[in-house]
Amino acid sequence: MPTIKLTSVDKQYDKSSPVKAVDDLNLEIGDGEFMCLLGPSGCGKTNTLRMIAGLENLSEGAIQVGERLVDSANDGVFVPPEKRGMGLVFQSYALWPHLTIERNTDFGLRLRKVPKAEREERVNHVMKTLGIEQYRDRYPSQLSGGQQQRVALARMLAVNPEVLLLDEPLSNLDARLRLEMRAELKRIHSAFGTTIVCVTHDQWEAMTLATQIAVMNQGTLQQVGTPEDIYDRPANRFVAEFVGSPPINIVEMHDGGDAGLRQALRAHLQGDYAHGAEIASVGMRPENIQIAASPAAVSDSDFQRPMVVTAVLPTGGSWIVEMEDNGSQLFATTNQPPVLNAGDKGVYSLAPGAMHSFDGKGARLQPLAEEARATQNIRVAG
After folding, report:
1. Any idea where the ABC transporter domain is (predicted)?
2. Which of 129, 219, 231, 379 is surrounded by the fewest CB atoms within 10 Å?
């Protein structure tokens, strides 16, 4: 499978407007990767997918698939969609209502005039892999949404595309079917080894499916990395706030909330960062916050503050605890029944290294310990 490389890609619909749907995008999608383009509505992720597919022309830049240049605004190169060796699964399943499931599945193979014996072998294999062979004589209207989604995937996989493009493929399914199809897509990627590019605004969909995630906002790429990188080492405040549920707690270090909390945070973080680093805001993930009835239950090395519980919200299997630290509202999550109830006083704490600090422009500040580990790893690798 080929590597997909986007170089300085722009998409601008109105030349008279400075606003770009995609702005100077540089992205490489490796051979066999499951890449999720993640971001809020209007961030440019679907435009990016459509440019890769050839459904949209570039305003600037180039797209290369393997050694082949498929689109270049400067060189006047444009390879049409049908000649790019890609399969696209739309948000709507786009199945032929008058064709059986088998005929829907082999539709692309018939267009390519694949011999009957080979066509039947490929269709049988992909239908069996996706668990839809028992529906081969039915019509799309006789299947559930999840089953129709499998048929749409089978139709694309049957033609053995070099790259499979998915445009929010699970958004029309209910919660249970989404969970099942996430596992199905994971298994498909493992079984077929196809390079997959998936557009989604669902952070958990991206976290559970992707080998690499590209987070976008307002047409620009914010960060590319593994799900662990995106969650544990967000490149900036936008990524930290977008990924995570409940969202990360943010404490502004210059205004808002309690001055005592800000001073306590500064004292706790002093020495963690290079001299002169300006910490404009601090993030604390709800699941990293521990709650106790008294300081005696908290390690001396942990950051700790007194608080009052304002609400306990059960979610089924876990709890969200809302608390207040002298005017600053914070949330914590726990998988165990909370030790405190609404109105109770207690303390909350975080283990060393469980905070994320950002500068005035929202960029993440790298702790000295993390920087030292990265340097050590480079030396060992070298």
Report:
1. 4-243
2. 379
